[in-house]
Amino acid sequence: MSILHPDLLTADAGDALPVRVVTRDMTLEGAEAAWAAANDFSGKAGQVLLLPGEGGAVAGALFGAGEAFDPMTARALAARLPAGLWRLEGVSHEAEGHAALAFALGAYRFDRYKARPAPAARLAVGPKVDIAAALHIAAACALAREMVDTPAADMGPLQIETIARTIAEESGAALAVTTGDALIEDNYPAVHAVGRAAAAHRAPRVIELSWNLDKAELPLVALVGKGVVFDTGGLDLKPAAGMRNMKKDMGGAAHALALGRLVMQAKLPVRLVVLVAAVENAVSGDAFRPGDILSSRKGLTIEVGNTDAEGRLVLADVLTRAAEHAPDLTLDFATLTGAARIALGPDLPPLYTDDEDLAADLLAASKAVGDPLWRMPLWPGYRPALEAEIADLRNDPAGWAQAGSVTAALFLQKFAPETGAWAHMDIFAWNPRAQPGRPEGAEAQALRACFEMLSNRYR
Fold first, then answer.
1. pLDDT digits over 288-331, tens only?
2. 327-359 burial code (b ≥16 CB/10 A, e <16)
3. Active site residues
4. What Rg, from alpha-carbon coordinates, does the chain have?
5. Both ends of the chain: CA-CA distance in Å?
6. How far is CA 196 from the centre of its chain?
7. Around Cβ 454, how many Cβ atoms within 10 Å?
8. Which of 327, 130, 368 lies closest to 218, judged by CA?
9. What are the φ/ψ torsions at residue 280 (nearest 5 degrees)?
10. 55 CB contacts (<8 Å, ≥6 apart)?
């Protein structure tokens, strides 16, 4: 599992070089001003300028803050500063804590397949910064990103199970796994149908982690994740361009496991269940077909109109399993629809819930930690688009509804627990373009917002 360098954030300033935060209205003086002018440094947000010292050494750096310092822009520092120990100057204690987390998030590099990983910059922080908490959050995000970045050949259902088992062992949680044909016996028929075409060593499975279940007085939180380790589209085969990044289709599972790990590390006073359906949507003679009628754990039948709408099928079974625990709160994560990207682009995941308090709490947490979410409607007028002639539901909503992310969420709502609040995040889990502190590839989305919300609700 992904870990961050233990000295990435440290309280020992030692010989740390200063990084001075500079806003546009600040006036530089002397040689520093001349050097900034010669290098076109104006204090623009995200700019970094190394300052020369004696003998050609680096003496420090200036970091542009724009009109006012947003601590999350410190993600860029980890990517732009050379290796060595650095410290921030000119920021408040509160801002320093947020900036330390941003720096740790920006330090992520997927170098598993690199022969010579590059050395990283480190940040010294003041005594009021909770280094352990920041590193736990950054490590959770790094875990989710590394799982998504890892090619499908090395991140199959078994590897997801192994990561879940390690997380459980770390926290004293229980783990139960149902694999292959046992899914039929244990009543996960939709999960089995989607994953049965994969090779035997990549057999589908339902992974259930549970923690604190013996403490009946505590509220129960269920985290559910879509774990499609590779999505060919099934018999409704994706084109090459659409299949290229489908290693990331298990991003929901990665987020659910990473968030569960955070909850247990923080020892939040809750009972916790994490449910993941880990499958490969492969093509073989045993693949499920368009026109098939699938059973589901809830007892509803589903007509398959498109084998590339498989994520909602596996989530149907594990959401039903979550409901059997009668949770007070359920959060599900899934790289579910391209329609979500058309609506909101790659950076802004849609949030679906019909619980006003939960929506308000999640959006407030999202804003507080700089982890964006945008609430979308569970519009009841589109529910008829899910109706089928010869089954209870169809997995490809009728074309007249058009709003593919909304109708996918409405499909999931049919299976979501009714005992408490439920929210669905249709995440992208990917940066399509490289930016400082945000390399092209996997991204953690909604994870920090959800942890902030849970930490505020359950203190």
1. 999 999 999 999 999 999 999 999 999 999 999 999 999 999 99
2. bbbbbbbbbbbebbbebbebeebbbbbeeeebb
3. 238, 312
4. 23
5. 28
6. 26
7. 24
8. 327
9. -115, 125
10. none
